[in-house]
């Protein structure tokens, strides 16, 4: 795989990880945003959302790097 293809795969992996992080954050967000008999909890937006998106990106890139290194180690030597 060429350098451009590897760079594109890394970018697509990071984008997919951000999407997964956003999807995980969106599960039941309404009940977390408005607690029972309390006002809105804004930390859901300014703390939890960026952490979930960044966590998704970090996890997906870590998996991509591990799979890439495994592929290199399993490739026959010339």
Structure write-up:
By secondary structure, this protein is mainly α. The chain has a domain at 13-25 and 39-78. It contains 3 helices and no strands. The chain has helices spanning 3-26, 29-33, 43-74. α1 packs antiparallel against α3. The longest helix has 32 residues, at 43-74.
Concise summary:
The chain is mostly helical and 78 residues long. 78% of the residues lie in helices and 0% in strands.
> Which secondary-structure class do the elements indicate?
mainly alpha
> Average pLDDT value?
86
Strand content of the residues, in percent?
under 5%
Q: Helical proportion?
A: over 70%
One letter per element, helices H and strands E, the order comes to: HHH
Spatial gap, N to C terminus: 17 Å
Number of helices: 3
**Major beta sheet summary:** none
Overall 3D form: rod-shaped
Number of E-state strands: 0
The gyration radius over C-alpha positions equals 18 Å
Question: Which parts are unreliable, with pLDDT below 50 for 5 consecutive residues or more?
Answer: none
Helix-strand blueprint:
Elements: H1 3-26, H2 29-33, H3 43-74
Keywords, please?
single chain; 78 residues; mainly alpha; 3 helices; 78% helix; rod-shaped
